[in-house]
Amino acid sequence: MQVCVFENAAQVGKAAATLIAAQLIEKPDSVLGLATGSSPVPCYKNLIEMNRQGVVDFSRMTSYNLDEYVGIPEDHVCSYHRFMNDELFDHVNVNKANTHVPSGLAEDLDAVAAAYDEDIVKAGGIDLQLLGIGRNGHIGFNEPGDKFIPGCHVVELTQSTIEANTRFFDSEADVPRKAISLGISSIMNARKVVLIATGADKAEAVRLSVKGAVDPQVQASILRTHPNVIFLLDKAAASQL
Q: What is the CATH number of domain 2-234?
């Protein structure tokens, strides 16, 4: 595990974008695992600017997002389909047919989850997986629990996660209670993992992930066993290390 600490979130975003750009320059048809939430937004803004300047090309890449809420349509302002279009895909030369976000609307969500994992395998696996981290140490929507769940699956969101995501909705009551998420094996099978964490509210989760035991109560702690993982932190998120 490599840990890099930067002055602020803007620098973290630029560093993450640089790593993704390098991946696409080295392998233009890379398979990227992408994340949503506040943490990757500065990264995506930098990638948009790099694309505008002709530094990085998205035309041949494929992407698979980590997760999606269950029960809201793709065009909902808080859906992760909508997030990715608004924050990245609508602004770069990506072929949207090659971008994938799991469906949270299907009748058989278990079948959707299984098919999503199969599609990633058929695509050759994820070359670089971008992650954020929840205040409770979750990655994707893999919440604290008694075990690490390997494959894509439906998750009951914890109250901590619901409260953290309320800021994106009109009220806490509007936050979905379930999500569909890549599992831990799906994440760990990525050839490279880049985790972004910014802000003092992520400091304890970062400390437990980097220095605590490998424990499913802190799902991100499993990343310490990955052969090629880098944590990009601002000073606030690194304050307990």
A: 3.40.50.1360
